[in-house]
Amino acid sequence: MTGYRKHDHANSFGAVAAEYDAARPSYPAELFDRLEELTGRPLKDAEVLDVGAGTGIATRLLAARGARVTAVEPSPGMAARLREVSPELPLVKGTGDELPFHDGTVDLITYAQAFHWTDPTRSVPEALRVLRPGGSLATWWNVKDSSVPWVRAMGERLAAALPSYRHQDSPAELTTELARHGLPTASALLHWERRIDLRVLLDDLLSRSYFAVLPPERREPVLAAERAALLADFPDGQVTEPYTLHLTVLRKQ
Predict the structure, then answer these.
(1) Which domains does the chain have, with CATH numbers?
(2) Half-sphere exposure of 165 toward its Cβ, with a 13 Å CA cutoff?
(3) Which residues pair with 108 in a beta bridge?
(4) Which of 39, 129, 155, 217 is deepest in the core (most CB within 10 A)?
(5) Residue 244, class by beta-carbon neighbours within 10 Å (0-12 exposed, 13-18 middle, 19+ buried)?
(6) Strands (E), the chain
C-alpha cells in the first residue's frame, strides 16, 4: 500500500472487532463529568446517539450514567460484536453523514474516537438537524501522550514502517471545523493513564486502521519488531500507558 485511502481505513475495523473491544482504552469518569458541565445538562435521562459506536465502549459508559443511548454503527463486524457483548443496547445501522433519525429528536450526539471518519461538511449539519434546541454535539479522542519518551519512540517507529500512520486528522483540526459553524463550542483536555499487559498494547495496535488494512505478510513483521522494542522498554511485560483526552462540545441554539 503506497497511498492512503480513507474509505479502506474506515471499513477495516470489522475484521478486528474482537481486538478492538478487548484492547482499546476506555474513558475516565472525569470525561463524563466534564461532558455534563460543557453541555449544561446531566446525562441521566438524556436522549443520546453514540455515532460510530464501534463495539460500544463509550455507549456502555453513557448508559451507565443513566443516558437513554442508541448506538449508531455502519460496520457489520463491529455491530455484531456490540450485540454480542451488550445485547441490551439499542443499535441502528447508520453513519454520521446521513443519520437515520427525525429532526429535533435527541439531546446529545456523541462521537467517541469516530468523528474523523465523517465528512464534517455533512455530519455537522446532520447533527444539528437531529438535535433538539439546546442540544449538543460532543466529540472526543484518546491520544497517546507523545511527550512520554517511549510513546514518542513507538510513534516514530510506526511512522517509518507504516505509510498511512500519520494520515488521521488531528483533534485540533476537527475542533476548528466545528467552530466554522458559528455556534458556541467549548473544549477540555484531560490526562489519564492505564496499566496494562504488553499483550493488550499489541492487540490495541492490531485494532488500529493503519494495521488492519495491511495483509498479514505486511503486518506481522512490523508487529514482531514492535513487540521486541517494547519488551526492551518493559521487560516485565507491564506497561503504564499515558493518554491525553481531547473533548469538544458544540451547542445548538
Answers:
(1) 6-145+168-194+241-251 (3.40.50.150)
(2) 14
(3) 48, 136
(4) 39
(5) middle
(6) 47-51, 68-72, 91-92, 106-112, 131-144, 185-197, 238-251
Which residues partner with 49 through β-bridges? Answer: 70, 109
Contacts (Cβ under 8 Å, ≥6 apart) of 98: 122, 126
Q: Residues with Cβ < 8 Å from 31, sequence gap 6 or more?
A: 140, 190, 245, 247
122 — phi, psi (to 5°)? -110, -40
Confidence of residue 3 (pLDDT cuts 50, 70, 90): low
The Cα–Cα gap between 4 and 146 comes to: 23
CB 101 within 8 A of CB 49: yes
**Locus of grid cell 500512520:** 165
Cell of 110: 456523541
Which positions ≥6 away from 244 have C-beta within 8 Å? 142, 143, 145, 189, 190, 191
On average, the pLDDT of the chain sits at 92
User: pLDDT tens for residues 172-228?
Assistant: 677 777 777 788 899 999 999 999 999 999 999 999 988 888 888 998 999 999 999
Note whether 204 and 244 are within 8 A (CB): no
Pick the more confident residue, 36 or 169.
36
At 83, list the grid cell. Answer: 450485540
Sheet containing 185-197: which strands, arranged edge to edge?
91-92, 68-72, 47-51, 106-112, 131-144, 238-251, 185-197
